[in-house]
Amino acid sequence: MSATPGDESRAPRFVADRMLGPLTRYLRFMGYDTLSASAFAEGNTREDTLLLSLAEGEDRILLTRDRELARRAGAGAVLIRSERVMEQVQQLHSLGLIEPDLTMDRCGLCNGMLRPASTEEVESCGYAPLRREDLAFFWCEGCRKLYWMGSHGRNLKEDLDRHLRRPSESPR
Ligand SMILES: [Zn+2]
Fold it and tell me: What predicted TM-score, i.e. pTM, was given to this entire model?
């Protein structure tokens, strides 16, 4: 947990096409401000144009699986090669765009900032785990959703570590 809510957002910022929902959630949990085409109305015929104007107007890197869209965006886009989310994360990491640590300071659903949850929020939430001693809880004001760094967060983190650990970082 290298950042706390309220810190400067991690750079860079992204906008992702609707094929990249899982990658979008990973990037948010890593603290990167990431907009998604999934937030646009389904079947919007101007979706590509919207993505391009968001990328350009808000200085966001466009992430897409669409070769033609990547070509139109030019240097401001990354054509995502794999359909597997871990390989997508790896591609962005190897391009030097992201540090794949889970910071849990941004909501995976809405891209809003998370803050530490209050005791009342944890207690009023029906899905909070009962054993809470070692868990850190976070709250999204926008979604009114509770997150915690527990088994789910740990699984994500282990996946990241397993796929992305560079040889120099291997424990021996
Ligand atoms: Zn949210």
Answer: 0.83
